[in-house]
Amino acid sequence: MELLLAAILAGLLVVFFKGGRLKGIKLQAVWLVFCGTLLQLLVLNLPPTSMPDYFVAIGLVTSQLLLLIFAGLNRGRPGFWLLILGLGLNFLVISLNGGFMPISPELAAKLSPGTALEIGQRFGQSKDIVLPMPITRLEWLSDRFFIATGLTRIAFSLGDIFIAAGAFWVIQTLGTSKTQNSQELIV
């Protein structure tokens, strides 16, 4: 999630510094984004005792599917093919690993030093499940990349990279120069 937010912010900053502004654009089925995001926020932010992990897994897979359908419906727009690729990769690896994104015990320990880790269990209240690489299906698509800054530590997948690049590209296509004379479409 942090990588996606950073890509969106970077896209907005580039548009701003180029002297542009965001213009409206007609996208199909925007409601799928709201439903998919709301579902994901709901299942990831409820206390772990209030919802069994299999409901969380179903919610995460459904959320990914809704976002993938939205991207597919808008595939003709610039940047959406990267979103489709990233969402598709994440959907595939999450679906094949019990509805959660696999993360290795070693990487989970880097994210949260000193935290007790149980193999096969959900990592905190995240979308991740702690799985050793040899038993992870499509481990090369799992959360395997790591960035640590003074403020945060994040793990992310190849799919997340494509999603972030796609989101950045989409934002760029929504940016228009103030001097351009173009018609605006309202979402």
Describe how the helices and strands are arranged.
Layout: H1 2-17, E1 20-22, H2 31-45, H3 53-73, H4 80-96, E2 101-103, H5 105-111, E3 128-130, E4 145-148, E5 153-156, H6 158-174, E6 175-177
- Strand content is 5-15%
Intertermini distance: 24 Å
Q: What gyration radius follows from the Cα positions, in whole Å? A: 18 Å
Tally of separate domains: 1
Silhouette:
globular
Could you report the average pLDDT, rounded to the nearest whole number?
86
Low-confidence stretches: 178-187
Main beta-sheet strand count, sense and barrel state:
2 strands, antiparallel
**Share of helical residues:** 40-55%
What does this structure look like?
The chain is mainly α. The chain has one domain (2-176). The protein contains 6 helices and 6 strands, in the order H-E-H-H-H-E-H-E-E-E-H-E. The longest helix is centred in the middle third of the chain and has 21 residues, at 53-73. The model is unreliable at 178-187 (pLDDT under 50).
